UniProtKB/TrEMBL annotation:
Pfam families membership: tRNA_edit
Alphabetically ordered keywords of this record: Aminoacyl-tRNA synthetase, Ligase
Protein name: YbaK/prolyl-tRNA synthetase associated domain-containing protein
GO molecular function: aminoacyl-tRNA deacylase activity; aminoacyl-tRNA ligase activity
SUPFAM superfamilies for this protein: YbaK/ProRS associated domain (SSF55826)
Domain of life: Bacteria
Domain YbaK/aminoacyl-tRNA synthetase-associated: 34-159
Organism from which the protein derives: Streptomyces ferrugineus
Membrane-crossing residue ranges in chain numbering: none
Amino acid sequence: MPEHTHHDLPHHDTYEHLISLLDSSHIDYRLLDHEPEGATEAVCALRGHPASEAAKCIVLRVKVDRRTTRHVLAVVPGDRRVDLDAVRALFDARYVGFSDPETAERLARAVPGTVLPFSFDPGLEVVADPDVVAQPKLYFNAARLDRSLCISGADYERLAEPRVERVAAAASAAV
């Protein structure tokens, strides 16, 4: 069977893919419908939980050396930010920065604001902060702006199999 490229994988398929993965893995999850919203603070308010229980998902470009660029999906608590220096140290990289929106969307198979803490692309490696997998309840947009998912951090870790490393920093006070 030919491999699907992202062109024939519209984003709603990412949602279906996630749900079938959860169902086939017999994982308890809750779906929450809400107003379309992708910004962490705003969507946490709609879902009615503290931002610390949200999984914030950021696609990063990691330049290991001149020839090698890797893409990493960093998953941190919603009230924190990604520590780019920690990610750089982790991969012994020369440079770490945010991916451009097109690349992020292609690899994550979701539009910004709906990126899952899972990777369905072999070119995207997931690194999750220990505080994410420790959450009894973890919320994230389910590859859609109008629907979110809640599962336990332990189930998330079992299913997504992220590399668990300290990659979250305190949210900076600077605006």
